[in-house]
Amino acid sequence: MSKVWVFTEEPKAALHVLSPAIHTASKFGEKPALLITAGKNLEGVSDRGWGKIIALKGLNDGVSFEQASALATLMKKEAPKIVILPGTKLGKEIAAFSAALSGAAYAPEVSEIFVDGDVIRYARSILGGGVIATYRVKAPYLVATYQLYQYSPPEGGQPIPEIIEMEVLAERSKVSRVEAKLLEKVGVDLRKADRIVSVGRGLAKKEDLSFIEEVAGLLKAEIGCSRILTEDYKWLPTERQIGLTGVIVSPKLYMAIGISGQIQHVIGFNKSKVVVAINKDKNAPIHQYADYSIVDDLYKIVPALISYLKKTALQQ
Fold it and tell me: What is the pTM of this model?
């Protein structure tokens, strides 16, 4: 079996960690293996570049200890080097339990894994996101999680490997899931947005959100914000907050308007493809992270941008 595994009970969640798994597995000259509870619909997942797909029989969905026990048993038998799980609530529980049961190193929310011969290292944010620390793994295996939406999945249409069913031994949990209900989601999930217009303390008053909304509408973008607009001013709901204490996003376009660029906020958008900053303070940290910067008053630039976008729309 591959030296790099992805373990999950939710097929779509596996796509969030497949790109880094493929990159890591390539260091061993192979493709990653997907280990998943049997009976799952793998449409749109199986054709993304897996080396093997192993369907694990006899496991109860939603029971983290039981799945971790099975994973730990397989790790001891097959001796992978790295096991990656998506950073869902259940994924984090399984990762921590399986690492403890197998004697593996546990690394939550890593940003990257490095392989150099027999040496494995990983990097992750610490100290409120102000520092990226790198660690060397001394245990026989590494169990790591990545945050959701941190990486885009590879394209589909690739060869589908044979799906192998495998019976696994697992210590049975003293609890079982009786029922599962999907909660109705209210609001927006910014992690899925391709374009985000984000605003910060540079906005003078709540009423001025109207022209931020207009820019977002013209760009077909969602609205985000820095912490102060949700926590202090209460101008926007908390699901719009981007940063270390909000959501982590990776859109194709991130436009930061009147945002200074403190590290706690930068952590939330630094995986964006293109970053545009509008801030009149030439020394604002946001300019260091932007692909395009406009050093000017947002109350001058945003109306001009709205006018330009409207003219462009009329010409199409």
Answer: 0.72
- For residue range 65-124, what is the model confidence (pLDDT) as tens digits? 889 999 999 999 999 999 999 999 899 999 999 999 999 999 999 999 999 999 999 999
- Beta bridge partner(s), residue 198: 224, 256
Residues 271 and 205 in one domain: yes
Residue 178 in any domain: the answer is no
Count of structural domains within the chain? 2
Q: Does residue 181 fall inside a structural domain?
A: no
As to burial, measured by CB atoms within 10 angstroms (0-12 exposed, 13-18 middle, 19+ buried), residue 6 is: buried
Least confident of 54-58, 137-141, 171-175, 211-215: 171-175
Contact 81, 3 (CB under 8 A): yes
Give the up-direction half-sphere exposure of residue 191: CA atoms within 13 A in the CB hemisphere: 12
Both tokens of 83, joined, read 């096991």
How many Å apart are CA 49 and CA 188, to the nearest integer?
Answer: 30
Is 272 within 8 Å of 251 (Cβ atoms)? yes
Assess whether 254 and 114 both reside in one domain. no
DSSP code, position 240: G
Contact 253, 233 (CB under 8 A): no
Task: Check whether residue 195 and residue 106 sit in a common domain.
Answer: no
C-alpha distances (whole Å) from 270 to each of 145, 204, 254, 266 are: 19, 26, 9, 6
Helices of type H across 79-195? 89-102
d(CA 71, CA 66): 9
Say how far apart CA 129 and CA 137 lie, in whole Å. Answer: 21
- Considering the domain boundaries, does residue 298 fall inside one? yes
Is residue 186 scored above 80 in pLDDT? no
Token pair 């921590």 in the structure block, residue: 96
Residue range(s) defining the domain that contains residue 98: 4-167
- Structural contact between residues 42 and 56, judged by C-beta atoms closer than 8 angstroms: no
As a whole number of angstroms, the distance between CA 170 and CA 192 comes to: 35
Do 119 and 55 share a structural domain? yes
